[in-house]
Amino acid sequence: MSKLRFRISMSLDGFVAGPHQSKEDPLGVGGMRLHEWVFPLEVFRKMHDMPGGEVNESSLVVKEAFENIGATIMGRNMFGGHPGPWNSAKPWNGWWGDNPPFHTPVFVITHYEREPLVLKAGNSFTFVTEGLAAALQQAKVAAGGCDVSLGGGAQVARGYLREGLIDEMTISLVPILLGSGERLFDDTGEDLQGLELVRTIATRDVIHLRFARAG
Amino acid sequence: MSKLRFRISMSLDGFVAGPHQSKEDPLGVGGMRLHEWVFPLEVFRKMHDMPGGEVNESSLVVKEAFENIGATIMGRNMFGGHPGPWNSAKPWNGWWGDNPPFHTPVFVITHYEREPLVLKAGNSFTFVTEGLAAALQQAKVAAGGCDVSLGGGAQVARGYLREGLIDEMTISLVPILLGSGERLFDDTGEDLQGLELVRTIATRDVIHLRFARAG
């Protein structure tokens, strides 16, 4: 069965992005510090056509996150650009240029209708205005038996978590403080909706906590 | 040199106590869930004069927390009782009865003066009204070359963290959500004040993240 899987980097104080996210600073002030553990990895460098790089215990976690993924879901804020209705005169086509790193159909949850956007190398963006469950249903069909990756951001992830729709979640806990920004677990209730810690991979720079459904 | 050491259990969403802390419910609603990993341990049961119990990877962490401790610091809220000036007609002498588990001089940070309280088995409580640094100084003298344990709660711990006065910190991360309550890292800034992750001990129920000063 197709699963909804989610991996995200979070600071010790619970933030998944720094404050003041903007077009110029999409991860917010200091937000890049959450991702420093991934940049030296060979598996990351390969994805971005760069040679060399390290192999360590985090390599497996990055590799796994991209395995068997047939579709991707993200929120409007993660797709980025501007708030409100889409500007068709000067369309925002995402942060990633002509060749985004998803290589799957991507479903963007938004309040505003827009025609699908097709880019290079298997990347397409479909804009879903019917909510989280509808986006998941469309993504699962598109995934054709493979899993669906939940890209973020925090708001959309919280919604899927509260609805109990996430089947696997990996929190890559980075032992730093961001002080402010976007919290992942904010008003998410007392219930992990059946998710249990099933594996911990610890390095000096990041601790990967993998949660899955029991049984 | 005498160190200030701090160990606390924290939920995945960052809470170290549940909401609605009261005399009847000192850990707040659901707060007991943060400590379930410790109760089955032999090392914990022994401290409370109970036979039997488990030995697992968490045993070391509990054992370490009590080793080489010569004094303890806590906030007024952790000592408990009532807000405002001390009621000398009906004195509150802590949660722990005649024989508290500290067996060291304890320094309680409060806004209200009070005579020291001496209980059984090496337990005494001194009430410090001159602030965090003064309490630490008195505790270090009392510790006589041993370390000082910072008991909590969250507010006092945040204060010592912001001042850069904590030398070792172990966060026992419990993979559950509490949803609300007292957050440890709340407005603690972007700086761990020289503390770095130096060890992770992972079990299914709790992940112990130990921070210490580099060098």
Folded structure, characterized:
- 2 copies of one chain form a homodimer.
- Chain A contains 5 helices and 11 strands.
- With 215 residues, chain A is α/β, with parallel strands linked by helices.
- Chain A has a 9-stranded mixed sheet, sandwiched between helices. The first copy, chain A, has a two-stranded antiparallel sheet with strand order 2-9.
Features:
homodimer, 215 residues, Dihydrofolate Reductase, subunit A, 9-stranded mixed sheet, two-stranded antiparallel ribbon
Break the fold down into its secondary structure elements and pairings:
The structure is a homodimer of 215-residue chains.
Chain A: E1 4-11, E2 15-17, H1 42-47, H2 57-66, E3 69-75, H3 76-79, E4 105-109, E5 117-118, E6 124-128, H4 132-143, E7 147-152, H5 154-162, E8 168-174, E9 182-183, E10 195-202, E11 207-213
Parallel strand pairs in A: 1-7, 1-8, 3-4, 3-7, 4-6
Antiparallel strand pairs in A: 2-9, 5-6, 8-11, 10-11
CATH topology of chain A: Dihydrofolate Reductase, subunit A
Oligomer: homodimer
Distance between the termini of chain A: 14 Å
CATH homologous superfamily of chain A?
Dihydrofolate Reductase, subunit A
Mean pLDDT rating of chain A: 94
Series of secondary-structure elements of chain A, N-terminal to C-terminal:
EEHHEHEEEHEHEEEE
At CATH level 2, the architecture of chain A is 3-Layer(aba) Sandwich
